[in-house]
Amino acid sequence: MRWILVAALVLASCGAPEPPATDDTESAAVAAQATIEWGLVMHGGAGTITRENMTAEQEAEYRSKLTEALTAGHAVLEADGSALDAVVAAINILEDSPLFNAGKGAVFTADGTYSLDASIMDGATLRAGAVAGVATVRNPITLARRVMEESRHVFLSGEGAEAFAREQGLELVEPEYFYTERRWQQLQAAQAEEVLGTVGVVALDRSGNLAAGTSTGGMTNKRWGRIGDSPVIGAGTYAGEGCGVSGTGWGEYFIRNVVAYDICARVRYQAVTLAEAADAVIMERLEAQEPETGGVIALDGGGHVVATFNTPGMYRGWIGADGEAVTAIYR
Ligand code: ASP
Q: Is 54 exposed, middle or buried (0-12, 13-18, 19+ CB in 10 A)?
């Protein structure tokens, strides 16, 4: 696996072209590298996603939803919208899809309830907003943005977050809205570690500003009000000083290792590229603690796209100024 990553870095430094949109033969490493003038990079969760356990129809569905979300974010940026607007527009589409473990497709807690988390950060100002443990908000990423822009706080949880959502006039739904048969079956099987499908986006707008956001239902079968890394600024989401990261995977490890911030800090304090920093954190540091921990997507001010993961697969994609969406799933 390592050699593939090294090969990718070499390819990237030679200015290798972006891989084609149909990437059945792609390796993760080649897919992990591209340079864009402006645009966005996205993940739809990392985990045991292999060709063997995916039908052609399922794969096409995932790719088409990723492409739809990438295209929506691109349209915002093309019209001179902000990176923040693009992040929210793209994540809203993934949240409204039952395919991903965010919004509509959120997984169940051990009690058979829902507890959704999200966060967003504006790289230009270091402002951030996050919510944890909400069960009635259709689009948690939108609420996270409201926390950032309409409150004096950064992080709201549970009933308080929902009261704020109500005050803000956001769309509230009955818990049944989040019901999907697939997630119910997964809870019955209690395959906590198998169920990863969090979504995240990092966008770079035409003014050179970066923003990052992450939204999730958390981990299947979670208990006691457990909160993962996704709403924790610095762990699951970070944007600042020309670096943006969104993570997905086993949240406890992402929190302990402050993954998103660590990647950006390495770029800032060490003479390393974003790809090198992401590989060091995900492929070496996390992997040494726990194999198959997850992955990140990241983007820097120079438009370098990174998607690094130590799991068999990670739903991912990016789109540059040319509007050509690239999607990939497997390693
Ligand atoms: N990181 C998320 C959490 O631990 C789960 C995921 O990425 O799918 O809550």
A: middle
